[in-house]
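Today's session is about reading a structure prediction critically. Students often jump straight to the picture, but the first step is always the sequence itself: look for stretches that repeat, for charged clusters, for runs of hydrophobic residues. Only then move on to the predicted structure, which in these notes is written as discrete structure tokens rather than atom positions. Here is the chain we will use throughout the hour.
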Amino acid sequence: MSAAAAGSPAQPPSQEVAAYLDMLAAERGAGANTLAAYRRDLDDYLAYLDRAGIPLEEADTHSLRAFVADLETRGLMASSAARRLSCVRGFHKFLYAEGYAEADPSVAVSGPRRGRTLPKVLSIAEVDGLLATAHAAAADEETGPARRARRMVCLLELLYATGLRVSELVALPRAAGTTSERYLFIKGKGGRERLVPLTEASRAAMTAHLAAVPEESPWLFPTDSDSGHLTRQAFARDLKAAAVAAGLRPDHVSPHVLRHAFASHLLQNGADLRIVQELLGHADISTTQIYTHVLDERLKAMVRDLHPLMDG
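Below is the predicted structure for this chain, in token form.
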């Protein structure tokens, strides 16, 4: 245990560390908590060099790579190790720029690989519950809240049927609701065009919602916003309220989570990965492959929870 951890006063920082922290405070406006975090990271780095018998001025690329390996053996999460290496990189860059060192050994050192965050996904039962609650609200008599509920049903049915990006969904033209086709023509990111099929439920929801949309509106979801149509933020806010009404945690439900559900449920039911890629409008299939990892995690959980030979 270090002296500081045992309750003794911490040792003053080295001249180089003190100079670096002063620069962060003066030029970048770093606050006390940020400076304390940088100080801890640099103290850890310098302690490692001391244990390895390497003077700071002799630290090289090999030394830094060994430090990263040491962080991993100590069990640091990849995100924490990456943050610590980022601090050390900034420190060495500063030393080189200010003439404390003849070279910057951190340039060629890559950080620890971070695991890709798996997207949140609602179960099929949870989506069914969300849709059922929205439909029940929309079935009320002809009131303002009922019209708003029918708009929510239309948004939900379309999003779950097509996997549209929220920006694509809220900006759908009025013509989308009047089409006799069983698909929508979407122009997505980078001008890439794609066709997305419609379900009977989504087409019926558009017809019901369209009755309350002014004929002169060019948008399927018109509002008084600057763009003239529903904003992403407004839809996300209303969706949180719909989630609460359905008994779901609002922090687990968002337009993007429903897009994830669309993709994951298709794959769960045997859809081809490249078809899902096309429907989502992903330029690279590696982006779509994240959903296969979600399914892997669910399968592992199912085996863990249901296999008769697994410990409870």
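Discussion point for the tutorial: The first helix runs from residue 15 to 28.
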